[in-house]
């Protein structure tokens, strides 16, 4: 299967490096994505919004033959949901890694400090203990050193959706910071984080207890969870 791996805020394609070898060893083709504006710290992020990121993933789908699986971590969740909305006939499954799809009008996170162009990684003191679980101090330092400011509008623009065929695409949620029962409650209550999950006809939930970035804290376990989902 062709797997398109979409990172969350502040990360590029290399954030999947710990996961890719196991996916490839299982026979899958991997396509880690560096979204527009995340090419480097010095990249021009002017005018880049959520639609730009969705366009990039849809273009990658179009460049490949056959069905694809979209894997979205964190802020990459609404990006892959938007791409599924654009290409519902091409997406065999969506895997959300400590993430959710959102719904019409959802934004990734407009509560983090930013200007009109970019949103730098906040200090670790602004994150919850559950998000940082299993990180060593050295791991946090490595993350901060590699972090790239995200385009502000990719995080703050509202998600716009058009094709209800997206509800028929199977979904797997790999939840790390929320236990499964809490996730089920959030889906039933249509929490903004889970968004369209209440309307998607085939949803599986897998617990992988760790922090918000399992590709760094538990890469082998995350790879296996993705493989199992397929």
Summary, kept brief:
This protein has 230 residues and is α/β, with parallel strands linked by helices. It has helices spanning 20-25, 50-63, 76-86, 137-146, 152-156, 180-188, 214-217, 219-229; strands at residues 2-6, 29-32, 68-73, 91-97, 118-119, 150-151, 171-175, 203-207. The protein has a 6-stranded parallel β-sheet with strand order 2-1-3-4-7-8, sandwiched between helices. The chain has a two-stranded antiparallel sheet with strand order 5-6.
Topology:
Blueprint: E1 2-6, H1 20-25, E2 29-32, H2 50-63, E3 68-73, H3 76-86, E4 91-97, E5 118-119, H4 137-146, E6 150-151, H5 152-156, E7 171-175, H6 180-188, E8 203-207, H7 214-217, H8 219-229
Helix pairs in contact: 2-3
Structural overview:
The structure is a single chain. The termini are close together. The model has no long low-confidence stretch (mean pLDDT 97). This protein has one domain: Rossmann fold, CATH 3.40.50. It is an alpha/beta fold. It contains 8 helices and 8 strands, in the order βαβαβαββαβαβαβαα. The chain has helices at residues 20-25, 50-63, 76-86, 137-146, 152-156, 180-188, 214-217, 219-229, and strands at residues 2-6, 29-32, 68-73, 91-97, 118-119, 150-151, 171-175, 203-207. 30% of the residues lie in helices and 16% in strands.
* Rg value: 16 Å
Number of domains: 1
Give the strand tally: 8
Mean pLDDT: 97
As for the CATH topology, it is Rossmann fold
Q: What fraction, in percent, of the residue positions are helical?
A: 25-40%
| CATH architecture verdict | 3-Layer(aba) Sandwich
CATH class: Alpha Beta
Give me the secondary-structure category. Answer: alpha/beta
**What order do the SSEs take from the amino end to the carboxyl end, as H and E?**
EHEHEHEEHEHEHEHH
What global shape is seen? globular
What is the straight-line distance between the termini?
A: 8 Å
Order of strands, main sheet, comes to: 2-1-3-4-7-8
Strand content: 15-25%
Oligomer: single chain
Count of helices? 8
CATH superfamily: Alpha/Beta hydrolase fold, catalytic domain
Contiguous low-pLDDT stretches (5 residues minimum) are none
Specify the biggest β-sheet: 6 strands, parallel
């Amino acid at each position: 299967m062709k797997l398109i791996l979409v990172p969350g805020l502040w990360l590029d394609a290399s954030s999947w490096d710990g996961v890719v070898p196991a996916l490839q060893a299982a026979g899958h083709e991997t396509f880690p994505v560096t979204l527009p504006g995340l090419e480097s710290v010095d990249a021009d992020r002017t005018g880049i919004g959520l639609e730009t990121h969705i366009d990039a993933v849809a273009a990658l789908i179009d460049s490949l033959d056959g069905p694809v699986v979209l894997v979205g971590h964190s802020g990459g969740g609404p990006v892959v949901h938007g791409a599924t909305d654009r290409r519902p006939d091409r997406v065999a499954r969506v895997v959300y890694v400590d993430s959710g799809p959102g719904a019409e009008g959802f934004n990734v996170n407009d509560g983090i400090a930013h200007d009109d162009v970019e949103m730098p990684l906040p200090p670790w003191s602004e994150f919850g203990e559950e998000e940082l679980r299993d990180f060593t101090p050295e791991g946090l330092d490595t993350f901060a050193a590699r972090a790239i400011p995200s385009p502000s509008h990719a995080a703050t623009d509202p998600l716009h959706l058009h094709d209800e065929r997206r509800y028929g695409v199977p979904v797997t949620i790999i939840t790390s910071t929320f236990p499964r029962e809490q996730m089920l409650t959030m889906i039933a209550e249509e929490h903004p984080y889970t968004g369209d999950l209440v309307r998607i006809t085939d949803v599986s939930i897998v617990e992988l207890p760790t922090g918000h970035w399992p590709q760094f804290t538990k890469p082998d376990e995350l790879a296996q969870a993705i493989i199992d989902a397929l």
